[in-house]
Design goal:
By secondary structure, this protein is α+β, with helices and mostly antiparallel strands. It has helices spanning 22-28, 38-49, 80-85, 107-114, 128-139, and strands at 13-15, 30-33, 55-59, 65-70, 75-76, 89-95, 121-122. The protein has a single domain (13-136), classed as ph1033 like fold. Strands 1, 2, 3, 4, 5, 6 and 7 form a 7-stranded mixed beta sheet that branches.
């Protein structure tokens, strides 16, 4: 498989907690984060370099899982709503139209969410890309 960035191999998979902002992100078709210091801006720079087509998992405040695919460049949004939900730095993202049942979410993804944390991060597991691709084929847009 050739990734959108021209590299060969399966697309990378990330978790995007978007705590307090996942519902807004799903509604707007974006994946995003905030940054309030230099360290946070370095995370935004890494997020900006994620290849289009990469998989991203998020979970709503109600505990529902959604799978998405990054699909465009970074943009900034400093509106009150974006600031309140922590989504000031966003990229377009195509999300599954309905939640993915927990039993279909890759085990590695469940572990990343179980550890907690608020950061967008890559999931390093040899099977997670193929498992996410299977979910995308059956549930994606």
């Amino acid at each position: 498989m050739t990734r959108p960035d021209g590299d060969h191999g399966p697309p990378a998979v990330y978790r995007a907690p978007m705590i307090g902002g996942a519902n807004r992100a799903l509604r707007l078709g974006v994946c995003g984060m905030s940054a309030s210091d230099e360290r946070g801006m370095r995370r935004v720079e890494r997020f900006e370099r994620v290849a289009d087509g990469a998989f991203v998992w998020t979970r709503t405040d109600d505990g529902e899982f959604f799978l998405g695919r990054i699909d465009g460049p970074l943009r900034e949004d400093h509106t009150d709503d974006a600031t309140a939900t922590g989504l000031m730095y966003c990229r377009p993202c195509r999300w599954t139209p309905t939640p993915v049942p927990e039993h279909e979410v890759p085990a590695a993804t469940l572990r990343t969410f179980a550890r907690g944390g608020r950061n967008f991060q890559q999931t390093h597991d040899p099977d997670v890309s193929d498992q996410s691709a299977t979910v995308w084929r059956t549930r994606g847009t």
